[in-house]
Amino acid sequence: MQQSEAEFRSLSENSPVGIFRMDAEGRCTYTNPRCQAICGYTFDEALGEGWLQFVHPEDREWLMQDWSQTLSSQQQFSAEVRYIHKDGTIHFAQMRTSPLSRTSSQLIGHVGTVEDVTERRAIEQMKSEFVSIVSHELRTPLASIRGSLGLLAAGVFKNKPESAQQMLDIATYDTERLVRLVNDILDLERLESHKVNLNKQWCDGAALLEQSVKTIQSLAVESQILLSVEPTSVQVWADSDRIIQTLVNLVSNAIKFSPPHSTVTLNVQEQADRVLFEVKDQGRGIPADKLETIFGRFQQVDASDSRQKGGTGLGLAISKSIVQQHGGRIWVESVPGQGSNFYFTVPILLNE
Ligand code: ADP
C-alpha cells in the first residue's frame, strides 16, 4: 500500500502535465510541481482559495461563475485561463477537471490537469495576423484588376481606345504585382518552414557581386543610378542563387530609395571568421527607430513605400531568412538624408 502510494506520488511529482486536486467545496488540496510552474504559485500559496489570487483579474469572475456550476455537479470542466506570475509575465493555461466520487452520488472533489499553451497561442496569433495582412495585400491589386476589367467588359470605353488602354495598363500592372506578392509569400513561407535546401558550394564573392549587378543593371540605368563594384576575390561557402537573390534585393532597394545620379556601391571582404557583403547607397536613409523593424514582413518606413515603388514589403524578410539559413547576420546602418549601408555576413565554416 505504502509502496503504491509512493509510486503514484512520484508519478505526479514528475509529470510533464500540471496536476491539481480540489475538494468537494472547491478548495485546492494539492498541486504538483509542473502545475506550480505553469500557474506561478508555490504548493502552500495554491492551497484553499489561494490559487485564485494568481488568476488574471479579468478571468476571475467568469471562471468562478463557470467553476461553481461544475463544482456541485458530476461534470467535466475545461477552460483557458490566464495566470500572472510573480515576475509579471502572463501564462495561458488550459485547465481541465473531472469529478472524483466515492459512490455514484457522493462527490468527494475534482482532479484537474493544467497545460501551458502560451507559446501555442502566440503562434496562432501570429498566424492569424499574417493571414489578415496577406489577404489585405492580395485584395488590393485584385480589386483594382476587377475594377478596370469590369469597366472594359461593361463597354464604358467602347469609343475611347486611349482610356481602354489605360485600364488595361492598370490591370497588367496590378497582375504583375499580384504575381510578385504570391511568389514572395510562397518563397518566404518555404524558407521559414525550412522546406528549402540550400545548395551550398564554394563561390567567388566578386563573381556573386558581378552577377547581381548584371541582373539589376537595366533598373539602374532606367533610374540613372551608377552601380559601382569593388571586386575582391574571396571564397565563400554558400548557395550562390540565394546570395544573388539577397544582393539583388538590397541593390534594387538602394536604387528605389536613391535620387538620380547617385551611386550604389557593392563590396565584399573577408574577415576573421566570416565574409562580409555590403550594399551602400546615398539615398534618403532610414530613421533610427525603423532600422530593425524593416526586416519584418510587410514593414516599411512609409506606409506608401511598397505600393509607390512597386515592392512587396517582403524583400528584406526574405533576405533575412536566407542569411540566417547560412548562419549569418544581416543589418543596416543609416544616416537619414545621407544614405544607408546594408551588411550581411556568411560564416567561413572550416568543418562542414
Ligand atoms: P519593399 O522594398 O518591397 O517595400 P523590403 O522588405 O525590401 O520591401 O523593404 C522594406 C522597407 O524598408 C522599404 O519599403 C523601405 O521603406 C525601407 N528600405 C529598404 N531599403 C532601403 C534603402 N536602401 N533606403 C531607404 N529605405 C529602405
**Structural classification:** alpha+beta
Strand content: 15-25%
User: Strand sequence of the main sheet, in spatial order?
Assistant: 2-1-5-4-3
Query: Rounded to an integer, what's the Rg over CA atoms?
Result: 30 Å
**Quantity of strands, as a count:** 12
Notable characteristics:
352 residues; alpha+beta; Beta-Lactamase; Helix Hairpins; Heat Shock Protein 90; 5-stranded antiparallel sheet; 10 helices; 45% helix; binds adenosine-5'-diphosphate
SSE blueprint and pairings:
Elements: H1 2-13, E1 18-23, E2 28-31, H2 33-39, H3 43-46, H4 57-71, E3 77-84, E4 90-101, E5 107-116, H5 118-153, H6 161-192, E6 201-204, H7 205-222, E7 226-230, E8 235-238, H8 240-256, E9 263-270, E10 274-280, H9 305-309, H10 315-325, E11 330-335, E12 339-347
Helix pairs in contact: 5-6, 6-10, 7-8, 8-10
Adenosine-5'-diphosphate (ADP) binds next to helix 8, helix 9 and helix 10.
Q: What does this molecule look like?
A:
The protein is α+β, with helices and mostly antiparallel strands and 352 residues long. The protein contains ten helices and twelve strands. The strands form three sheets. A five-stranded antiparallel sheet has the order 2-1-5-4-3, with helices on both faces. It has a five-stranded mixed sheet with strand order 7-9-10-12-11. It is elongated. The model has no long low-confidence stretch (mean pLDDT 91). The structure holds adenosine-5'-diphosphate. Adenosine-5'-diphosphate binds next to helix 8, helix 9 and helix 10. Adenosine-5'-diphosphate (ADP) is lined by residues 249, 253-254, 257, 281, 283-284, 286, 294, 299-302, 305-306, 311-317, 340.
